[in-house]
């Protein structure tokens, strides 16, 4: 290459930024803990604002790409605040003895829910044991016998009295097969006095009434006996619990204990007789006496922080379980299950927004709970199917929780647009950065972050060269030499796989018995590079398929020589987590056409070009008109095509290439095929930055290396992309040796100068393009076509 291109040729030092490892800790054991909020000050301030405001609706949507570590940072942030906040009360559900379908919700101080349940279950066992023992005792049996014998004596006296009177009238009182008392003649031969019989029947009716009353008296005396006995058993057992859980501000527990005692007394016979329906048990406790601890907290543990990874409607708002007995669906208070909102009540709930929206009715349920500031457990199945099965309606509980949704930007804006009430609930948006400015402080922060990962994963020690290699790669991930990628998932993957390379390649014994100083005892940059090569090879299947076509000549790419109307454009192919650059041949054909010509974009016409690609073509067309319409009619038609391209093309990064190849065809001037070009362009001809610049350069470098580097090959990029350059070491070394070149231009004119090695748009004193310039050749050709047409 001649020196005239030197102003555009970048030195190898501009192609990659290397970390100064001397400014880093010597190894991971000397790195301090990473600060929680470094680089995320805006997001942290937004979250702190939401946490400080207790008004309704100040919930948070944390916006950022997956893998940034949003959840980890927020959890750490919440943990610092939560440990100084009061611990919310425990929540238990108990049977409602007056309305069984409406279980009672009781709140107790943190840690007391399980103790209360234990006390009540122990109480039941002691009650049951003493009741059974008492009802099986001789004294109880004697008391019952006494009551029944007294009643039997009275019954005999009444019946003996009426029987004596009947005998005087030749009648006796007998009981038929159905136990009905009737008068029967003693001697069938003697006549019966009907008047006397009528009187006896009336008297017997009165006696039957007296006997019924006597039965009621017996039952009443037995009930009084039971109550007396039970009170003697219950009071000594209940009094300590009533005293222990007495709360002057909340009488619900006291009332529950009163109702509990009353229910025991009223249902004592079911208990003693082991009635199966009554004695359905959970953990050996009758369900009606079971205390269901729905939410329990450790005392003085601060406010809860809950992350629900499966935010279904039941998992969020709680649900009620059912059992089937003899074909009948049953449920009770013991089958109530708390949801994530119950567990986070009084604290914080973190949810992945995408997961929340995947589950039917979960968002509606969360929205309703936050709006009402109340938690109600309902049967979603019953609401949806309108079944007639028995269900419960437990007490609702007040809700005081701060919800943080985690999601990507697109999802946030969709919710903002399509969910009218979203912004009323989630007033705070916390934007998380996905990159950091690259400076000494940010490099130290990433180093500390790596050290945290190493400690957490129990990995070997990393030295400063490994830190430097990882930091360099983070700038590659960020596609900018002055930025560092903040995706924790990608960073952790690289750290873990670098440690794997260390284990594969280190040669010292585990017990450190070998003292050879040459043995590598820490993870270094070689291990990191090996890990990167491994990742690249793993993801390179699709790239390999494309490169096979270049290697075997099926994909036509020239890296030497000069051709009119042909240029090497640069493209990026992205598929899943694989992204790589490939050169593509772009060609232009020109033909004269009388009148106003047209430029045919083949990609657009066959619907393989996207809207951004079409925009670039229109900008280029406008630019051409501004260049030549004052000198001659644009009396030509042109067609542009990416050869051997069968996939959808979008983006305007080929505008410079399209303009250059079209001007080459118009001027009939060849383009250097040793060069490739990428870049967008505005209507003034200025070169504009594009994405994927590193992948594009690597793609053409690999093609040139495949055909053989000759020292003339290179790539032209917009000058505004210099800051994004983070090229691999092999490309940097090739540029350093003069085997490959990277040119940076600020306009299409500079790009054309490098591509054609001739003046482009110099004008004479009259304002016309000089004849030996590229544009001068184009104007002469347009005029010649115009003259040829006039001569016809």
TrEMBL record:
It comes from the Bacteria. It catalyses: Hydrolysis of proteins in presence of ATP. The keyword Transferase does not apply. It is an enzyme of class 3 (hydrolase). Its EC number is 3.4.21.53. One of its GO terms (molecular function) is ATP binding. This is endopeptidase La. It comes from Moraxella caprae.
């Amino acid at each position: 290459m001649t020196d005239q291109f030197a102003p555009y040729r970048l030195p190898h030092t501009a192609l990659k930024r290397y970390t100064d490892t001397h400014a880093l800790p010597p190894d991971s054991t000397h790195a301090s803990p990473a600060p929680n909020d470094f680089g995320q000050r805006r997001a942290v301030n937004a979250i702190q604002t939401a946490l400080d405001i207790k008004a309704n609706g100040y919930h948070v949507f944390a916006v950022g790409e997956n893998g940034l570590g949003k959840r980890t940072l927020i959890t750490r942030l919440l943990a610092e605040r939560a440990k100084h906040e009061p611990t919310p009360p425990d929540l238990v559900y108990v049977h409602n003895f007056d309305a069984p379908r409406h279980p009672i919700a009781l709140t107790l101080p943190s840690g007391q829910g399980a103790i209360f349940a234990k006390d009540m279950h122990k109480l039941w066992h002691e009650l049951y044991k003493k009741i059974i023992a008492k009802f099986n005792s001789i004294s109880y049996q004697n008391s019952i016998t006494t009551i029944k014998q007294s009643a039997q004596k009275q019954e005999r006296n009444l019946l003996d009295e009426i029987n004596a009177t009947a005998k005087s009238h030749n009648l006796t009182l007998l009981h038929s097969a159905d136990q009905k008392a009737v008068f029967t003649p003693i001697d069938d031969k003697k006549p019966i006095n009907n008047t006397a019989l009528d009187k006896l029947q009336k008297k017997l009716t009165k006696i039957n009434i007296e006997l019924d009353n006597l039965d009621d008296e017996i039952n009443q005396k037995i009930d009084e006996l039971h109550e007396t006995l039970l009170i003697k058993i219950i009071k000594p057992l209940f009094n300590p619990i009533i005293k222990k859980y007495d709360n002057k501000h909340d009488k619900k527990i006291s009332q529950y204990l009163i109702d509990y005692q009353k229910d025991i007394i009223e249902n004592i016979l079911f208990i003693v007789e082991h009635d199966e329906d009554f004695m359905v048990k959970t953990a050996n406790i009758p369900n009606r006496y079971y205390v269901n601890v729905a939410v329990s907290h450790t005392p003085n543990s601060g406010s809860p922080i809950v992350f629900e990874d499966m935010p279904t409607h039941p998992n969020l708002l709680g649900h009620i379980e059912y059992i089937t007995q003899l074909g009948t669906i049953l449920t009770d208070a013991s089958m109530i299950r708390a949801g994530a909102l119950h567990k986070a009540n009084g604290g914080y709930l973190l949810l992945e927004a995408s997961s929340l929206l995947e589950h039917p009715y979960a968002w509606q349920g969360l929205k309703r709970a936050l709006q009402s500031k109340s938690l109600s457990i309902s049967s979603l199945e019953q609401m949806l199917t309108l079944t007639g099965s028995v269900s419960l309606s437990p007490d609702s509980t007040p809700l005081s929780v701060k919800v943080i949704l985690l999601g990507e930007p697109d999802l946030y804006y969709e919710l903002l647009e399509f969910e009218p009430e979203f912004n009323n609930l989630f007033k705070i948006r916390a934007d998380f950065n996905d990159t950091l400015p690259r400076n000494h402080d940010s490099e130290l922060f990433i180093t500390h972050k790596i050290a945290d990962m190493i400690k957490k994963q129990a990995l070997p020690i990393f030295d400063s060269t490994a830190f430097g290699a990882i930091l360099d790669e983070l700038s590659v991930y960020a596609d900018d030499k002055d930025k560092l990628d903040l995706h924790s998932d990608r960073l952790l993957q690289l750290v873990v796989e670098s440690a794997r390379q260390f284990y594969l390649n280190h040669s010292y014994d585990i017990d450190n018995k070998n003292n050879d100083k040459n043995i590598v005892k820490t993870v270094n940059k070689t291990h990191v590079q090996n890990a990167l090569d491994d990742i690249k090879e793993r993801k390179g299947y699709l790239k390999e398929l494309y490169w096979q076509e270049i290697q075997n000549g099926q994909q036509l790419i020239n890296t030497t020589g000069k051709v009119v109307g042909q240029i090497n454009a640069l493209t990026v192919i992205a598929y899943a987590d694989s992204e790589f650059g490939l050169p593509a041949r772009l060609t232009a054909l020109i033909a004269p056409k009388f009148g106003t010509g047209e430029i045919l974009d083949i990609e657009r016409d066959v619907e393989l070009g996207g809207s951004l690609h079409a925009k670039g073509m229109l900008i280029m067309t406008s630019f051409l008109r501004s260049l030549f319409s004052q000198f001659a009619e644009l009396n030509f038609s042109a067609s542009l095509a990416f050869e051997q391209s069968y996939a959808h093309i979008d983006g305007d990064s080929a505008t410079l290439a399209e303009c250059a190849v079209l001007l080459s065809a118009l001027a009939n001037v060849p383009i250097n095929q040793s060069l490739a070009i990428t870049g967008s362009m505005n209507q003034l001809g200025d070169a504009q930055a594009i994405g994927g610049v590193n992948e594009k350069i690597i793609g053409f470098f690999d093609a040139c290396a495949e055909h053989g580097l000759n020292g003339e090959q290179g790539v032209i990029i917009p000058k505004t992309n210099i800051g994004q350059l983070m090229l691999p070491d092999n490309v940097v070394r090739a540029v350093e040796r003069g085997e490959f070149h990277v040119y940076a231009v600020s306009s299409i004119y500079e790009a054309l100068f490098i591509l054609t090695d001739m003046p482009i748009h110099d004008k004479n004193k009259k304002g016309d393009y000089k004849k030996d310039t590229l544009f001068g050749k184009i104007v002469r050709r347009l005029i010649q076509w115009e003259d040829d047409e006039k001569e016809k």
